[in-house]
Amino acid sequence: MSNNGQLQLPKSIMPLLILGIVGIIFLSKSTVNIDAGEAGVLWKRFSGGVVTDQPPLGEGFHFVAPWNDVVIYEVRQQELFEKMKVLSSNGLDILLETTAWYLPKYSDLGKLHQQKGENYLETVIKPALRSAARSVVGRYTPEQLYSSKRDVIQNEIFDETKKILDDQFIQLNKVLVRDVTLPPTIKDAIERKLKQEQESLEYKFRIEKAQKEAQRQIIEAQGKADANRILSASLTDKILRDKGIEATLRLSNSPNSKVIVIGSGKTGMPIILGNQ
């Protein structure tokens, strides 16, 4: 111990202490931990820079040379929400809200880092999505965007964006059109037009239904008329007399008192006089 009361380490311990500190720094620079859903791109300071001819470092604990570096990327599916203003085929402003599901191609992660960088979302994916959306929406009218063409437009935006990203080391899984906002005046005009079309279709349906009902009644009446005509043609005087005789015979066997005058009447048919 020194004269002023301070503790002094032996001179032989100082080199060991310095070596220990250097060892700790060296060890901290030589290890890297990669979490779930991530991968690491190795950069070699003295042998070629970014490693592109080997798979990236996977999840877990890794030792690397302290003079090298590891850049970690998320390789799970990620979501991009993009709100953009585009033009329809007739030049009207359309506000389009989209969602894109994407992830970097795992085997090409080194090339992505080398050629596009960590900010590839801003420099590659967003411009590609915006370009595809403007190109696709520009082919359609506001009426088509508002109604029946939504799914078609969504698929076309996905196809065109995917073509751009396929050679950019990025995998695009899906593009969703969340909302299409039209200028209020255009939206009101389209809704009125759709309402009128719906009313017209309903009116047309009622007319067709009434026409079919009238046709059914005509056919039914025609059938009844034909049946009556056929029946009238088949009822000759001889048949009527035979029927009258049959009826007279059945009535004569009835226990009720009656008087039957044979050969009376214009047609010679019997006249039956009951006790009432």
Please provide a written account of the structure:
The chain is 47% helix and 24% strand. The protein is an alpha+beta fold and 276 residues long. The chain folds into four domains: 23-74, no CATH class; 79-182, Tetrahydropterin Synthase, Chain A, CATH 3.30.479.30; 191-234; 240-274, no CATH class. The strands form four sheets. Strands 3-2-5 form a three-stranded antiparallel sheet. Helix 3 crosses helix 5 (150-165).
What is the domain tally? 4
Span between termini: 156 Å
Mean pLDDT, as a whole number?
79
**CATH homology group of the largest domain:** Band 7 domain
Oligomeric state of the chains in view: single chain
The proportion of residues forming helix, as a percent range, comes to 40-55%
- Find the structural class using helix and strand composition: alpha+beta
CATH architecture title of the largest domain: 2-Layer Sandwich
Spans of at least 5 consecutive residues with low confidence: none
- Cα-atom Rg, whole angstroms? 48 Å
CATH topology of the largest domain: Tetrahydropterin Synthase, Chain A
Order of helices and strands: HEEEEEEEHHHHEHHEE
Strand portion, in percent?
Answer: 15-25%
Largest sheet: 3 strands, antiparallel
What shape does the CA trace take?
elongated
Going across the biggest sheet, name each strand in turn.
3-2-5
Please count the beta strands (DSSP E, at least 2 residues each): 10
Number of helical elements:
7
The CATH C-level class name of the largest domain: Alpha Beta
Keywords:
three-stranded antiparallel β-sheet, single chain, 47% helix, alpha+beta, Tetrahydropterin Synthase, Chain A, 4 domains, 276 residues
